[in-house]
């Protein structure tokens, strides 16, 4: 939600203009954004104000405003109306008499009770009442009133956008029914890969098995004040030995997820894809971003953005099926848009002809478990208005939750544009192996690291291996 604060004309009352009995008021309606903003600015994240389930168990049985939210409204009247600009706040006494709840209409009134020429002191009675006329806050304030007349427009304020990511919160809530799973962390000898695993462990999602040179890992932890309590160890001296040992833990079932450590992705994949000792299945591995965008009504899977550089038609069949299986596992109905530059079929666009072929494969049961449509442009895939304007009628157009991109460049740029320019957060994971594989992304936030581990936990509890595709 975007909040726009419009400039207003401000006019103060000087000490000479103020008389005992003068008053000024403002009225505000408490909404969820007010509570969230106050929590962000103050750092007061008391669940009585933010968690409906917790608040239901309190004496008030519902979410209430922070007490000082009403106090700030008193400050607003003093600073903008009476006395107004130039006022110096000296003291405030408040008594909180009733809770303020969502939807309450609060009227704040300050009334001059006394004046003193010494330092231009003005005392004011302060009262906040709700829509029923009942007092919620009462008190008094003392200020130094201005002596110079001010009449001017308020300074313009920037728009403020609250970016919420409810889909990741729902994912973590879903994970509460599962116990933490053992995770093999291959060569976690840099702060990024070690932090990746430890944050997932602190969230109760994994039990880290640190595979690598223990003394080197401990030095990284000590240098960066990371707590290794609860980790188990498998000694390995080199990156290659570490990834091989981590893979063996996954093959034996002692680890249910694999974390990439401080080694290049190609080295990790070389070991994972070994036909004899790796983690291959009948599926081709693919990469997905699971994106939680504040401006989209559902989680959005983007694939493939990091693994298959220029996928063939057969690669795309595996990419689509992997994504469908993931979305089904997360409890959603897959709606897959095969992206191209246009909505009409064109032999000049490989992505367009591939989309046509993939839709036909789905019709014949070679891809199963979800609705597929394409070719679709990006706007047609995610915007109901765009789909309607173009006359596109399908179960996917305008409401896709899986976007299959033409190649790795498109997937990488699309996910990062949403992340860095649109306020989205994007977890990522590799699918199609015997266990989920979590990448080491130094730029990832704690939220996305934890969400990636949460996806792995859900997948690990749904199946021990990827099922083969239907026959071509």
Could you explain the architecture of this structure?
It is elongated and about 90 Å long. It contains 15 helices and 20 strands. Helices cover 34% and strands 24% of the residues. Strands 17-16-18-15-14-19 form a six-stranded mixed β-sheet, with helices on both faces. The chain has a five-stranded antiparallel β-sheet with strand order 3-5-6-7-4, covered by helices on one side. A five-stranded parallel β-sheet has the order 12-11-10-13-20, with helices on both faces. Helix 6 (191-202) packs across helix 15 (446-462). It has 472 residues and is an alpha/beta fold.
The geometry reads as elongated
Structural class: alpha/beta
Low-pLDDT parts are none
Strand content: 15-25%
The total count of strands amounts to 20
Largest sheet: 6 strands, mixed
Helicity range: 25-40%
Kindly report the oligomeric state of this protein.
Answer: single chain
Q: Would you tell me the overall average pLDDT?
A: 91
For the termini, the CA-CA separation is: 46 Å
Number of helices: 15
Rg, rounded, reads 29 Å
Going across the biggest sheet, name each strand in turn. Answer: 17-16-18-15-14-19
List the helices and strands and how they pair.
Elements: E1 2-3, E2 9-11, E3 23-29, H1 32-42, H2 47-50, H3 52-55, H4 67-80, E4 88-96, E5 105-116, E6 121-129, E7 135-144, E8 151-153, E9 160-161, H5 166-175, E10 181-186, H6 191-202, E11 206-212, H7 214-223, E12 232-235, H8 239-252, E13 257-259, H9 265-272, E14 286-292, E15 300-303, H10 313-329, E16 335-339, H11 350-363, E17 371-376, H12 378-382, H13 384-389, E18 402-404, H14 408-421, E19 425-431, E20 437-438, H15 446-462
Parallel strand pairs: 10-11, 10-13, 11-12, 13-20, 15-18, 16-17, 16-18
Antiparallel strand pairs: 1-9, 2-8, 3-5, 4-7, 5-6, 6-7, 14-15, 14-19
Helix pairs in contact: 5-15, 6-15, 8-9
